[in-house]
Amino acid sequence: MDWKNYFSCVLKGLIGSIAVTVILTAILSLFMTFVEISESMFSGLYVVITSLGLVFGTILAAKLHGKNGWLVGLAVGVFFYIALYITGVLLGASSKFGLYELIRFALCVIVGFLSGMLGINIGES
Fold it and tell me: Within 13 Å and on the Cβ side, how many CA atoms surround 44?
């Protein structure tokens, strides 16, 4: 495996994931200035936004790499979770790694893994 190309594709996918997540979060924030959203609704929307960002970035990375989509997706999912965790801690969230964080990590890995396989197979005849 060409490791330089692999990590380059993973990095591009991670940047794409973060960019989509930031853009969608900004849109949600703008929307929230006009409409009041409950905390439970916000939590659900946050999960959807982060999942969409991760799916986009993973599909991008898998398409760029062209093979081993599951492995590319796994790496993007892990690094995306690490980026979310570090950002949360820097912005004041608890650094405690409990059951909630373990579930978030597992979801990022699973979504990345599946999206990587999807990214390889999208557009094939």
Answer: 5
